[in-house]
Predict the structure.
Amino acid sequence: MTAVDISTTTLREAVALEERPSRPSAVSTSLTFGWRALLKIKHVPEQLFDVLVSPVVFTLMFTYLFGGALAGSTTAYIQFLLPGILVQTIIIVTVYTGYTLNSDITKGVFDRFRSLPVWRPAPIVGALLGDQVRYTIASVMCIGLGLVIGFRPDGGVLGVVAGVALLLVFAFALSWIFTILGLLLRTPNAVMGVSMMVLMPLTFASNIFVDPSTMPSGLQAFVDVNPVTHLVTAVRGLMGGVVDAGDIVTVLVSAVVMTAVFAPITMYLYRNRH
Amino acid sequence: MRDGPQHAVEATGLVKHFTSGKKTTKAVDGVDLAIPTGSVYGLLGPNGAGKTTVVRMLATLLRPDTGTAKVLGHDVVSDADAVRAAVGLTGQYASVDEDLTGTENLLMLARLYGFRGPAARQRVADLLAAFSLTDAGGRQVKTYSGGMRRRIDLAASLVLSPRVLFLDEPTTGLDPRSRNQVWDIVRVLVQDGATVLLTTQYLEEADQLADRIGVINHGRLIAEGSPSELKHSVGQGAVTLRLADAGRRAEAAAVVQRVLGTEPTLPTDPYGLTARVPDDGTHRVAQVLPALEEAGIAVPEFSLGQPSLDEVFLTLTGEPLPEDEQGSDEPALEQEVSR
Ligand SMILES: Nc1ncnc2c1ncn2[C@@H]1O[C@H](COP(=O)(O)OP(=O)(O)O)[C@@H](O)[C@H]1O
Ligand SMILES: [Mg+2]
């Protein structure tokens, strides 16, 4: 064992802080927490790749297995499927927001954050900002795969970028549901399990995989009010070059509503958690 | 005396309940504290006594059900931000991010406290050097040893040189060497004027570091005083002998009783013998061995044990610590003298 000796002088010098910096702004504090989220992606990249496995499998499976039957040809089907798969992927990645938050709490890291003299929502807002980078990386990889197997969006680069941007706005708003679960549930795995139960109906009872006109009417009614359906339609439209303002507005409104409802609940729980 | 209030920490009637399911636990049941600025206060108690809950209330992480607390004159509920700016907290479990490196952890905190650019990096470098972690700074914290984790956690609490420091069981689970390092660090901080509240399960630790000790059990302070007052109330520990010849134990017991004035207890080990040291009897401990030698009784093993937390509890509450609450790794301070 190497001898480690604490030098009293160095310690004393480090403790005798001459100048106390002034309190940083809410923005800079949130950005610092966002930087931490990026460091996590750098040190634990597995987390990102784990969630990318299922969309890759889904894309390949649906395109080559059912593409012919569902849309006449695999190339025709990938144009329809890819925006949907992209939406599904990003929505699933949002679950990690709650999972990470809960791990921070169980490991005690959040205690330190909560004991800092900083703008209270900063740790959560910062984590959500960092997650935007995670969503972007996931989007790029998903679209990259699509391009390789024949996705040729008519909306061009601009349409694709606009579609991703709309998706990111929605994902940010949706994340607040998972921060609530992250604060309420006991373990990270419980957060994972419950979040998936929330997501299953949202993603499968939507128009991600098939056109809902073939579905039974009761299910169709749910699919029609499901905000994910509107999101998928809007993203498909943007990427396919046929913009439907109605769906875009619906998506933006549901994002605002979700944030307005769930962000305050998150902050309430965050302040009052034991 | 420094500027500011006479008491760095003041609490009155702190109460905190926890409810999980149908069960409600009264974790803290009316705790009063008054810790003079610049002193070390040791909160001593077994597992589950309520130590962490008290610290978390003082550090603004938990809101008291009733009662009030002030840190440097700031109310922990209504003026929580001022408290947070003045206080450093090292929790019972490491609260650094294990996935990040030591440097990244400290850099994040330095920025959160308002250090910018090169000033933040300089602050981190100074802290790493002060805690002998410069070489380990680039490694993820999950690769650190227990002692290193404790040090990075302490460094993290000192980024802004807090004037009040809360240390929750800072040495539990550490090897003796790392424990001594933590003690040294605490001593330096106190010399530099910080006020420290530390919790511990070890009487020895409180004795080594604290100016005043509060003994907590079931959420209540059951005794308070200086270390010597407290030990006084318990007695000065016990002398334990092991004889060469079991047949002479009764004779030896008589000699020990004559010297110390307390009646020895005879453990099941036929060679063993234990006697409490009375309050006024410390100086007579040294006479036990010569007296036995004079009587021609050989004593191959002799030890003087300080009173342990168990004994403190036995004396203060009249009941021993519950079996499952006794720290098995309790370092009873034993001064072995083998002959
Ligand atoms: N978050 C919590 N929820 C429910 N019970 C708790 C919680 N925190 C502590 N307790 C209970 O409160 C009591 C005191 O706990 P604690 O303050 O952690 O004691 P100590 O730090 O002295 O070991 C214990 O009975 C413990 O089980
Ligand atoms: Mg504790």
User: Anything to note?
Assistant: The longest strand of chain B covers residues 7-20. Chain B has two domains: 7-99+140-232, 235-338. The mean pLDDT of chain B is 87.
